[in-house]
Description:
Layout (H helix, E strand, L loop, with lengths): L4 H9 L27 H6 L7 H10 L23 E5 L4 H6 L5 H13 L13 E5 L13 H18 L3 E5 L1 H8 L5 H4 L3 E4 L2 E6 L2 H6 L4 H19 L1
Parallel strand pairs: 1-2, 1-3, 3-5
Antiparallel strand pairs: 4-5
Helix pairs in contact: 1-3
Amino acid sequence: MGWSERQIAMLREIGVRVWARPEEAPxxxxxxxxxxxxxxxxxxxxxxxxxLDWPALRVAxxxxxxxxxxxxxxxxVFGVGNARAHWMIVGEAPGEQEDRQGEPFVxxxxxxxxxxxxxxxxxxxxxxxxxxxxxxxxxxxxPPGNRNPLPEELAKCEAFLxxxxxxxxxxxxxxxxxxxxxxxxxxxxxxxxxxxxVHRYQGVPLIVTYHPAYLLRNLVDKAKAWDDLCLAAETLxxxxx
Length: 241
């Protein structure tokens, strides 16, 4: 199936070369998405990515060569879940298993996240929007050796995450881990100092909590993560009244 003229125009605006009919070319030839510093909220909102629908956004992410992570990734990790989910989970960067499978939060950390979601009657599987979470990462490519993301890498990916939030229109966001917090709240404060209260991202209530990979190494903090989930659930209930 070919792209609409609107989708082709939007993809070309962000440097992704496409054809009206994919069979006209064996592969897409991407051009780097220019962004030298982390965009401000107004800059990010003005990004061409803000106009893409789900299919076009997925293509733009898969074709992105804006930073050197494109040279070492197996594939990009876009996101998974109900496109209009009430909950949105934002993690940090893909790990080895995510890079292999193309899905965020797999392996042991994904199993723990699934258990956490089930504890508040949520799932990443098929369900109505109120019971299914949409899950995404701040970075769409795995850093080599699972190193920490670099500021310029987070900046290059930010427009994609912003557009995902715009499309999902979640009622609550759960930011898991320090780099998710940095991307969404522009804060370098540790997770431990930011959790336990309600923040806002583009008007959406946001709760900070620990990343499942951290919890696997620090079992004592699982109780705190449960408190954070309860706070998120209560915040959502209050905002829905």
